[in-house]
Amino acid sequence: VYFPDVEKAEWLNKIMQQMWPYITNYVKTVIYEKVQGSVQSSSTLLSNFNFTEINLGCTAPRVAGLKVYDNSLTRRNEIVMDIQIVYDSECNCGVSVNRLQAGISNFSVRGLLRVEFHPLIEQMPLVGAVSLSFVNDPCIDFNLTELANLFDLPGFNHLLRGAISDGVCGMMVLPDKYVIKLHPDVDISRIRFPLPQGVIRIHVIEARKLEEKDKKILGFGGGSDPYVTVKVGQQHKFTTSIIKNNVNPRWNEVFDALVHDVPTTQIQFALFDDDGALNKSDNLGMVSIPVKSVFELGIIDEWVQLSDASTGAIHIRLEFYELSEDPADLIEVLEHSNSDEKIYSSLLNIYIDGAQNLPDSCESSYDASPQLTIMMPGRESFKTQTASHTCNPVWEESFNCLVSNPNLDNVSFKISNQHGTKQNTLGHLKFSLGQLLKAKEMTIEQPFALKSSGPTSVLNARFCLRILKLKSQSKSPDKSSFLLESLSSAVENENPGCAESLEGSDVGSSLSRSSASANFGLFLALKKNASNGTNSVLGLNTTSSSGRTPSVASEISNIGEISNLRRRLHAKSPNQPNDVMTDNDLGRLKLTIRYSKKRLVVLVLMAENLIACDEDTSDPYVRIYIIPDKRTRKKTKVVKRDLSPSVGSKFDIPKKEVKQKKLHVSVKNQTGFLSSEKVLMGQVIIDLTELDLLQPNTEWY
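== Extended synaptotagmin-2 ==
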């Protein structure tokens, strides 16, 4: 899959390969001098820890693609780029602990690496610091050697690889960053722990026409017990309540999630049928929406069709809140809030640098091992790491929490000793958030004197308050472009470096995965000829950029189907003459076409207001092929009992065939195996020679 805003960087790969021997020597020095000593001092059990071998191999990491963000998504004093990194090495690293040796080999990493140059300054080297982080969890693989082979068992292997992956994610996956300071006057704490870019408020309202997963027994039972899981990026996951025996559930639940990276963060909604604690929940469908769409529109309030499901839609409302430094915005937020609902109005960021001059431990000759606990009424508390045997702990940790009313809320701190049998208190502090509303930029950074502690004991901290201000809504939000982007961006951000071409495959139940490389939307409609006012042949449109023209009868594959379609349409509108047709008599269908790296990709999104072929409904599906060559005929899945179905199908056309072909799309109704009834519900022909394939073409037909 090719993404036009991602550039190749072979020149960078050549430079990296030439510099790799020097980079490996530098990494060895850092590991021996810093990492090894840090591990040895972390625990008495690891005092004999040593690296026996460090060989990073001769193959340098490769850059599969590079993207630099423009000013619309970044600040003026920074440069942000995403690098698709691929590292498949023959490295061999070994360690020794108390004469026991273990190691790993053939280490590989694949992922999207975010590189930020921030802040840009006027003194050399023109950049204050460089930060590195993975946008999503990287794919990590390796082989175990020596004693580590004992972990190469089904149970232990999974635990070990999970622990290593979690360790990497805890250090270098957004919002965590590895920062390299380049200028002495730069405060890297603000770079390592930046404020979120905003807050997404997610309203899970209701769903309709969900699948019935529970089996019926003697005609009784059936239905589903649906609930929704909402995942925002890698940091937030929420779950709604379970609605028993209802395929049209209503939740009306609200969740707030911090957004640290607007361009790449996805909001994933997954619906499940609850089968009890001992059974795995059945899948009812899913939806993935990019935060970027919410950021651009401000508010999205839509019914969205579920993918990976034969039927169903979910009603969601998404609101993007910016972080304001103006205390006056708080008054407006509180005025519009409902006192019966617990709605957050502000974001509080707490940066804990450390503490100084804490009292000694009372139980032993060792210094205390202090840990800081942060508490707010009605909230889950936060805890820092434990600093071993020191009266001057350095934590350098940041915490974010949402606040209902800063005028009334307080935050409490307690430092306790974790060494010994009793966790005695070394000091405490209470801070009123109302002070921040009067401070410059609503930020206070200073040493705070601790109570019930030593005479000079202080806590070094920074408090920053921001008001949640609803982003102004786009004046003319394009619903269709939002729906298309919600589908097409899901896979692009999920694994942009490892995507594969899916030549000639149907999307079907995997619409959310394949739609990243498909930017085509198609809708079926009957249109009058603009030039002479005459109607096109019933059920068939030939379209071009210059206008829609009626097709000739020779292009219709089955005249019997057309006659049958005329009769059904006349039954629908008996007062309308048979030879007179108006726009949208047969419903409509939406397609978007885009040329992407040696192929044309077609995605059928949905149809609406189709005619009924049975008593009051139909079982529609869409068939796509290129004419005059019909060997590439493809068919989507069948959507049962729905006249406004959500349909997904991917269709690829080689570059050399695009300019000489026409795209034939027909909507049909599924009938029984032995049925002789004609199934045509409508069809359209698109002349590909008239389309500008360098740009996405989205239109209703």
